[in-house]
Amino acid sequence: MKIIFHFNLMLIIKRLRLVLSLMFGVLLLLSCQKDELSKEMDFVGQSFSGLAAFNAVEQSASLQFIVDDKVMNAGDEAFELGGYIRHKGVFDGRRNIQLHNKALNKEVFRGAHEFVKNKVYSLFFYGKEQVQVRVVEDDMIAPASGKAKIRFANFSNGGKLQLKTIKGTSSMPANFNLSAQQVTDFAEYDVATVEFQFNTDLSKLLLNFVPENKGVYTLFVVPVEQKREEEYLGAEYKVMVIKHS
Fold first, then answer.
1. Nearest to 152 by CA among 131, 170, 129
2. Beta bridge partners of 220
3. DSSP secondary structure string, 137-179?
4. Which residue numbers delimit the DUF4397 domain (predicted)?
5. Rounded CA separation 167/152 (Å)
6. How many CB atoms are located within 10 Å of the residue 51 CB?
7. Which of 230, 69, 55, 37 lies closest to 134, judged by CA?
8. How many helices (H) and strands (E) does the chain have?
9. In what order do the strands lie in the sheet with 132-137?
10. Among residues 119, 138, 157, which one ends one of the domains?
11. 172-178-179-182 Cα dihedral, nearest 10 degrees
12. Which of 14-28, 35-49, 69-83, 124-138 has the highest mean pLDDT?
């Protein structure tokens, strides 16, 4: 009986060793998987900023907007003159910004900017031989029902514009000047037909539309490329109605 008991005890010990070895292997595997998952999920919980981009760059039929080597254009977002890329989330802090001209296969802008956590920004690119950017902080909170928010951005490359409000009720002055590369604050307008007249020393342009209830808009003034845009023949600039929300 003693011999049988000793034999059974040895068998139990061997089986326990096998079970412990298997458990150790499983725990080691799970630990390795957890480490790899942690590396891949380092970004979770980090803070974000929001960036939108506007293109007033002459001779720019197909630009790529790049942040930290990542192309921000969605598949259906053609970033040409007068174009707009809606707000996209990026990590806050100092971010590297690039513009790449696909048609010419060359970089046309490179820079960096500091972005603050939980804030949203618009980047207005402009120029021709030397592309520059103007960065403004945005207030994209929707207005109350019955109202819309509108701002004006002058990147016509023709200098100062005179703006007259023909129709529209707002706290914005009825007549004022827009200097080159100026982006106004948003102002609230009643949801009804608004009409604006943009004047230079040589020309004027009338624009009217009905903003949507609680809509947020940028009226984006950009140059006209005469060779490509026959519908604007003779015009110095055009106004793009950009709806944000």
1. 170
2. 153, 240
3. E-------TTEEEEEEEE--SS--EEEEEEE--BSS-SEEEE-
4. 52-160
5. 16
6. 24
7. 55
8. 1, 16
9. 84-91, 48-57, 120-127, 132-137
10. 138
11. 60
12. 124-138
Q: What is the DSSP letter of 79?
A: B
Cβ-proximal residues to 187 (8 Å cutoff; 6+ apart), any chain: 149, 150, 151, 170, 171, 172
In angstroms and rounded to an integer, the radius of gyration of the C-alpha atoms of the chain is: 29
The total of structural domains in the chain comes to 2
Q: Are residues 86 and 113 in the same domain?
A: yes
Q: Report the pLDDT value the prediction gives residue 173, as an integer from 0 to 100.
A: 87
Tokens of 1: 């009986």
- Measure CA 45 to chain center: 20
Tell me the two tokens of residue 153. Answer: 């951005």
pLDDT at 45 (0 to 100): 42
pLDDT in tens, 150-183: 999 999 877 889 999 999 988 888 899 999 999 9
Question: What gap in Å lies between CA 9 and CA 166, rounded to an integer?
Answer: 99
Answer yes or no: is 41 within a domain: no
Among 22, 73, 28, smallest CA distance to 51 is for: 73
Residue 125 belongs to domain with CATH number: 2.60.40.1110
Query: pLDDT digit string (tens) for 28-70?
Result: 433 433 333 233 223 234 578 999 999 999 888 789 999 999 9
Helix, strand or coil for residue 77? Answer: coil
